[in-house]
Amino acid sequence: MLKDYAIEDVSKMKIKDIKEISDQITEDEHLEFLRIFQSDSRKSVQNICTRVEKKIQKLILEDERLERINSYEESAYNEGYMYIGGVDEAGRGPLAGPVVAAVVVFDRNTKIRWINDSKKLSEAKRNELYKIIIENAKDYGIGIADNKEIDNLNILNATYLAMKRAVANLKQRPDCLLNDAVTIPGLAMKQIPIVKGDAKSISIAAASILAKVTRDTMMYEYDEKYPGYGFASNKGYGTSEHYSGIEANGITDIHRHSFLKNIKY
C-alpha cells in the first residue's frame, strides 16, 4: 500500500487519510511510513509519526522481553532437556469452585507477543492469548481438583493433584518442568521451581493463562447454575456479594467447607 505514495505528494494529502493509513499499515511497514510522512511539516502529521515511532519502540521492548522470558526454557534446552513444560494453577484462594492447573510445552524459541502472567492481563487479552497458545503449543494439559478434593486433601495437596493431572494429560511425558514456585511431589522428572515464574517464563505464563481461562469459564457456568452468589464476577472469591449470597441462600455443592469454617451458613 505505501509504495503508492511518493514523498513529494504527501503534503497534499488530508490528515484524516494519513491517520487512516497509519492505522492500517502492518508492522513491517512502520519504517516505510515514517520515511514517507516524516517529511510533512504539519503538526498533526508529525504527531501521527510520533505515534508510529512509539508503536515501533513498544514492539522492540516487547521482543526484548520475549527473549528474557525464554531464558529458563533455553537454559533447560542447553542442559539437554527436550520436552520442557511450564506449570501453573488458578484458583487456590476462592471459597468456591475447583483449583485448575495447566502445563504447556512449546517448541524451542517460541515467541508469542504480550504473553504474561494472567493476572497482569485483561480478560479479553487472556481469551485472545488462550486461543493463540492452543494453536502454537507443541503440547498442553489441563488438570482439575474439585472442592471436595480440596476439603479432603487441603488446598496445597489438591493443587499438586491438579498439576499431576495436567502433566498426565500431555501427549508425551516431559523430561523437565518449570513450575511457578513449587516442586510437585511424586513426579520423577527434573523440576525447576521459579518464584514469580508466570512473569519470567513463557511456558509458565502460558500455563497461567490456560488455567485461568479454563477456571473462569467454569465459574461462568456455575453462575448460571447457582445464581445469587456473583460467581460470574467474583469467580468464587470472598467478595461482599458472595458473602451476602451465602447468608441469603446457604452454601452450594461447589463451596469449599474447609474455607468456610468461620462463616455461619
Automatic annotation (TrEMBL):
Catalysis: reaction(s): Endonucleolytic cleavage to 5'-phosphomonoester
Key word Lyase present: no
Molecular functions (GO terms): manganese ion binding; RNA binding; RNA-DNA hybrid ribonuclease activity
InterPro entries with a match to the protein in the record: RNase_HII (IPR022898), RNase_HII/HIII (IPR001352), RNase_HII/HIII_dom (IPR024567), RNaseH-like_sf (IPR012337), RNaseH_sf (IPR036397)
Coarse class of the protein's main subcellular location: cytoplasm
Positions with a binding annotation for a divalent metal cation: D88, E89, D180
Pfam families in alphabetical order: RNase_HII
EC number: 3.1.26.4
Localization (cell): Cytoplasm
Keyword Transmembrane among UniProt keywords: no
Gene3D superfamilies with a match to the protein in the record: Ribonuclease H-like superfamily/Ribonuclease H
Obligatory cofactor(s): Mn(2+); Mg(2+)
Domain RNase H type-2: 82-265
GO CC field: cytoplasm; ribonuclease H2 complex
Example GO BP: DNA replication, removal of RNA primer
CDD domains named among the record's database cross-references: RNase_HII_bacteria_HII_like
Assigned protein family: Belongs to the RNase HII family.
PANTHER family: RIBONUCLEASE H2 SUBUNIT A, RIBONUCLEASE HII
Biological role: Endonuclease that specifically degrades the RNA of RNA-DNA hybrids.
Name by which UniProt lists this protein: Ribonuclease HII
Organism: Peptostreptococcus russellii
